[in-house]
Amino acid sequence: MPRTPAAVAAAASIALLLPLAGPASAAPAPLSDRQQAYDSAAAEFGVPAEVLLGVSYMESQWNTYGGTPSVAAGYGPMHLTDFATATASASAPSAEFDGEDARGDDSRPLPQHTVPAPAGVPAAALQTAQQAAQLAGTTTAAVRGDVRQNIRAGAALLASYQQQHSANTGDWYAAVAKYSGATDSRSAADFADEVFQTIRQGVTRTTDDGQLVTLRADASVKPNTAQLAGLHLTPTDSTGVECPRGLSCELDPAAYAQYGPTPDDYGNHDTSDRPASQKIDYIVIHDTEATWDTTLNLIQDPKYVSWNYTIRSQDGHIAQHVLAKDVAWHAANWYINTRSIGIEHEGFLAQSGWYTEAMYRASATLVRYLAAKYQIPLDRQHILGHDNVPGITPPFIPTQHTDPGPYWDWDHYFTLLGAPQPVPLPAPPFGMLTIHPDMATNNVPFTGCVTRGTPCPARGSSEVVLHSQPSDTSPLLTDLGLHPNGAPQTMDVNDVGSRVSEGQQYAIADRKGGWIAIWYLGQKGWFHAKDAVFAAGLVVTPKPGKASVPIYGRAYPEASAYPPGTTPQAIVPQPYTLDAGQSYVYGGLAPSQYLATVYDPTGTVNTKPVNGKTRYYEIQYGHRVEFVNADDVQLKPAL
Question: What is the end-to-end Cα distance of the chain in Å, rounded?
Fold first, then answer.
C-alpha cells in the first residue's frame, strides 16, 4: 500500500535545520557610540533613557535605513517626519492594482478602472521633523541626515509631550502615546503598550549600520495607562470588526454594488460563506503602493478591487474592508482569492520607504489571530507575499505583482508571528533547504527602485539572487513565463524570475565549494551556501516513467465535476514542466475547487464551490508557488 502524505511527513522532521556553509566565526560587534547618543540625549532633555530607547525601537528598531524615509515620511531612528522632503524627489506612485484584474478569474474580467489622484495634504502629525529640530536647536536637514541629531531631536520632541516632569518611567505613558501621532485612542494605546512591553522585556540588537544597542529589561515598570484620557483622542470604534482583542481596528466596508446593466457588472468583492463553504488556507501579504488616504478612497469604488484589511504605517492602525466569510479581489488569482485573506500594508515595495516596527507588530498580531482562527500554518507555503502567488495562466504571468518586495523583512516578521527559523541543529545533510540570508548585510544590487536601470539605494534585502553557474558573474536564470519573448532576466527590483526569498524552501540539486544549487523553474539555480540552512521535509518528483508533468497556476476541478448550468473552467498548463530527475518542495494538498459567483446584495444566496475529485499538490517551483496533479507525481522525503 502506498504511504499517505501524512505518513511520509511523519517520517521526516520538518523543523530540523543545519547551516549549509558550516559555522562562521562571528566578528565582534564594533564599539557602539549609538548607545552613548541615546544616553546623552536622554540626559540632556530629561527623558528616561529606557523610554527614549523603547520609542525609537518601536519606530525603527534603532536602524538608520541609510537616511531614506519610511513609507510614512519618517527619518532616522526616531522616525521624525518630513512629508514634503520625502515626496519631493519621488515619482508619483500608482495604486497597487492600477490596470490589473486582481479578481484573477478569466471567466469574468474586471472592468477598466481609473485610480484617482492621491489624497492631498498629509495630516499635521506627519510634520514632526521641523518642530523637533527647533526644540533641539538644530536644523531639519540635520534631523534627517545626522543620526545623533535625529536622536536629540526625538528626545526633545518626546520631552515636550510630557505634561509634568517625572523620573518615574511609567509616568511617560501619555507622552509615548502622543509620539505615535495616532489620532484615535486605541492606536495610541497600542503604540505605547508595545513600547512599555519592550521596556519590560528588554532587547539587544545590532542595527543596520553595525551599532550594538541594548535596552535592559525592567519588569518592574508599570505604565500609567490612565494618562491616555488626558490626550482627548477620538474613541476607536471597533464595532463589527474581526480583529484580536485590544488591537486598534475599525470597520470600513468595501463597496459592493452593481454599476452596469448586466448581472456581471458589480464589484468589488463576492459574498460567500467561508469557512463553512470552503477552507481559508492562505494569508497574502501586500503593500498598497499608495498612501493610507488614497487606499481608503479606492476601496469605496465598486469598479476597483478589494482586500480584507489595510494597515497604516505610522501607528499600525487597521481598517477591515471585507469580512473573512466573503471573497476579496486582491491576489490576481481566483483560486487563491477564494481560499485566502488579503492584507495590504501602507507602503511602496521599492520606490521609497521602509516599514515601521509599529506596522510589523500590528500585522503580526492580526495574522497570528487569523491563522489560529482558521487553522492556517505559519510558514511560507501559506503566508504568501503577493509576489509568491502564481499567474493563473501563461498570459497573466508577466503582469502578476511583486509586492511586498525584497525589502520586507520576512525573518523579523516570522519572529513576531512566533514562528522564527529554528536554531540549526547538528545532523547529516538533507535534500532540501530554507533560504535564510542575513538581511542586515545582504545588500543586493537591485536597480529600478525610482528610475528604471538606476541602482537602488544600498539597503538590506530578504532576497537572494540565483545564477546559472556557481559564480557571481554568471548569467541569471531564465523565466520563460515572465519573459516569453526570451528576454534575459535583469536585476530590476520587480524582476523576480531568478531570485528566492527568506523562509522559502527548495530541493537541493548540486553543491560546489561554497556554492549550492536548487531546482528552480526546471533549472539549477546557484547561490552562496551561507544564505541558507538545511531542512528536512517532503519533495515532489514525477512518477516513474514520466519524463515530465505539467504545472498549473490554479487547482481547478475536472469538467465532469461541474453541475448543469455551470461552465467548466479550463485547466490550462503553465509554460513550465516538472521534469524527471528534479524535485520541488511539497507545500500541502490543494483541493480542486472553483467558486462560481453571482451578485447578491441580499446576502441570501448560498454560494458553494464546485469540488472535483482531482487532487493537486502545491509546490515551491520558482519565486512563486504552483500546483501539480497528484496523480502525475510522487511524494518522498527529501534525502
Answer: 21
| Cα 153 from Cα 620, distance rounded (Å) | 47
Residue 377's CB is within 10 A of a number of other CB atoms, namely 14
Bridge partners, 456 (sequence order): none
- Which own/partner contact pairs does 254-261 have at CB distance under 8 Å and 24+ positions apart? 254/299, 254/300, 254/306, 254/321, 254/322, 254/328, 255/299, 255/300, 255/301, 255/302, 255/304, 255/306, 256/302, 256/601, 257/302, 257/601, 258/302, 258/599, 258/601, 259/111, 259/302, 259/303, 260/111
List residues bridging with 620 in a β-sheet. 585, 625
- Residue 457, preceding bond cis, omega within 30 degrees? no
Residue count (the chain) = 639
Which H/E stretch holds residue 17? strand 17-19
CB-CB contact of 623 with 496 (8 Å): yes
Distance CA 53, CA 403 (A): 31
Task: For the chain, give the mean pLDDT.
Answer: 89
Compute the average pLDDT of residues 295-322: 94
Cα–Cα distance list, 606 to 305, 559, 609 (Å): 22, 22, 10
Lowest mean pLDDT among 42-51, 259-268, 411-420: 259-268
Residues 380 and 322 sit within 8 Å (Cβ to Cβ) = no
Would you place residue 97 in the very low, low, confident or very high pLDDT band (cuts 50, 70, 90)? low
For residue range 585-635, list pLDDT tens digits in order: 999 999 999 999 889 988 777 788 999 999 999 999 999 999 999 999 999
Provide the 8-state DSSP code for 57: H
β-sheet bridge partners, residue 434: 505, 533
C-alpha cell at 79: 522616525
- DSSP, collapsed to helix, strand or coil, labels residue 296 as helix
Strands 383-385 and 318-320: unpaired
- 371 vs 492: CA distance, rounded Å: 33
Q: What single-letter DSSP state applies at residue 262?
A: S
505 touches 533 (CB < 8 A): no
Determine the pLDDT at residue 20.
54
Q: What is the pLDDT of residue 96?
A: 66
Locate the domains of the chain by residue range.
34-82+127-231
- Give yes or no for a contact between 195 and 118, defined as CB atoms under 8 angstroms apart: no
Give strand pairing partners of 146: none
Which of 158, 178, 143 lies closest to 69, judged by CA?
143
List the beta bridge partners of residue 341.
283
Positive or negative torsion for Cα 335, 336, 342, 348: negative
The least confident of 74-88, 159-173, 311-325, 495-509 is: 74-88
> Which fold would CATH assign to domain 34-82+127-231?
Lysozyme (1.10.530)
User: Phi and psi of 51, rounded to 5°?
Assistant: -70, -45
C-alpha cell at 26: 562571528
Q: Pick the closest to residue 411 from 385, 390, 437 (CA basis).
A: 437
Q: According to DSSP H, which parts of 299-399 are helical?
A: 334-338, 357-374
Question: Which cell numbers hold the place of 103?
Answer: 479578481
What are the backbone dihedrals phi and psi of residue 396, each rounded to the nearest 5 degrees, phi first? -95, -10
Read off φ and ψ for residue 419, nearest 5 degrees: -130, 60
Residue 614 near residue 629 (C-beta atoms within 8 A): yes
Q: What is the DSSP string of 516-583?
A: EEEEETTEEEEEEGGGEEEE--EEEEEPTT-SEEEEESS-PPPGGGSPTTSPPPP--EEEEEEETT--
